[in-house]
Design a protein that fits this description.
CATH architecture: 3-Layer(aba) Sandwich
Largest sheet: 2 strands, antiparallel
Radius of gyration: 19 Å
Strand content: 5-15%
Distance between the termini: 37 Å
Number of helices: 6
Structural class: alpha+beta
CATH topology: Rossmann fold
Order of helices and strands: EEEEHHEHEHHH
Number of strands: 6
Shape: globular
CATH class: Alpha Beta
Length: 168
Amino acid sequence: MPAMTFRAPACGRAGAGAVVCPVRIWLVRHGQTEWSRRGRHTGHTDVPLIPAGVAQAESLRARLAAEVPDPALVLTSPLVRATETCRLAGLGGRAERVDDLREWDYGDYEGLTTPEIREQCPGWTLWTRGVPGGETAAAVGRRADEVLGRARASFRNRRRRRAPGSSS
């Protein structure tokens, strides 16, 4: 279960003397579930973490506390595997459950493995054939855009509160 961080370059000057500082967004995928261990496509089915997934989530606690001691925003999918990962990683008390962070809706392919899907649809990939009865890539992209928009707004609001001369 990798934790990924996207970093912008160091602070610099933009036009008209404005200072532009980096924004760090941490993405943490939920810990292992029985379905992910078996390679089953898991979207909206609410499967719990297995002991290995619990250990993965707990292993993030110290790193996140050191690297992100005061996050501006913590969002999680409402599914138990995500909320439990968030809690075990030490961020559960700050987290807001957001439906837009649910995983891809695999529709008719929910719970199947890629080889099982390819028995029905030779050469299938999520990106080239999609999922019958599920979400399109465009729909997933719109949800991701909404979440990123919230993250940008949260960062802007926090930066204003911390700006010299601000009242907070």
